[in-house]
Amino acid sequence: MHLPNPLMLAAGILGISHSLFKRVAEAGAGAVVTKSIGLHPRQGYPNPTIVGVESGFINAMGLPNPGAKEFAKEINKSKDIKLPLIASIFGETPEEFSEVACIVEEAGAVAIELNVSCPHAEKVGAVIGQDPNLTSKVVKKVKSSVEIPIFVKLPPLVTDIREIAIISEKSGADALTVINTIRAMSIDIETGRPILSNKIGGLSGPAIKPIAVRCVFEVYEKVKIPVIGVGGITNWKDAIEFFMAGASAVQIGTAIAIKGLSVFQEIKEGLRSYLNKNDYKNYMELVGIAHRN
Ligand code: SIN
User: Fold this and answer.
1) 3-state class of 265 per DSSP?
2) CA 55 to centroid of ligand 1, rounded, Å
3) Among 79, 78, 98, 84, CA closest to 38
4) Among 59, 123, 157, which residue has the most ligand 1 atoms within 8 Å of its CB, making it the best to mutate?
5) How far apart are CA 140 and CA 138, in angstroms?
6) Which domains does the chain have, with CATH numbers?
7) What is the pLDDT of residues 130-168, one digit of tens each?
8) What pTM value is reported for the model?
């Protein structure tokens, strides 16, 4: 898969309609990952669904989406956007994943990101990604149902992320997205209640960056397929750290809420001057260099 540049829009941020895909493309992203889509329409949790905390956000949206068939129309309309469109999908069973995968492939998605790592939704998400057998069944089923590449988005809260990475690769994954958000909560000290309606959500942003870098570093050592880094990338230095840990592309999410869509351009320019200054021909020369002895 060829990306015009290694900066992708992360799942869950703006990736919900043709007009937003277009804005992200115009802002200079190298690929767009959609909000996670399931087979059936889903309301999500009531508000509040997001809260700002030190160095990031905690969100628990509850995977709201219009259902695969309805969302397919947005993907279909997006053929005018000259950017790879990757559909993030979720499901309760391997069969459900496979049905959604076929719908988004047919609509024109160029790859699929399996969200087996949402840290708070019942029956879907991390309950799958934390179970190597179940993850393997989902990956195998989707792999046998579609022809486009499959990324698996891994959960960070596991005993050993390398185990899930290896099993995903063996089951047919074409790339791994490392990591999803981390289970977290925030309490309002005036009311004594959790702020989010779901009480627990997923922490994103600079707070999780060192954890994500460690996960990318560990996974890169164990697999041959590309690793896509995500978690707290807010500036060009962060992106470089992920490349050095082993990521061959990165996803930007929370930084858009902090800096706006101009963050894509800002990171690209910072990266370009770093490469020039240090005599690198291409950012790919940075990938994995932190593993040198
Ligand atoms: C949500 O919709 O609540 C977030 C999804 C995710 O974290 O994967």
Assistant:
1) helix
2) 19
3) 98
4) 59
5) 6
6) 7-45+60-183+206-291 (3.20.20.70)
7) 999 999 999 999 999 999 999 999 999 999 999 999 999
8) 0.96
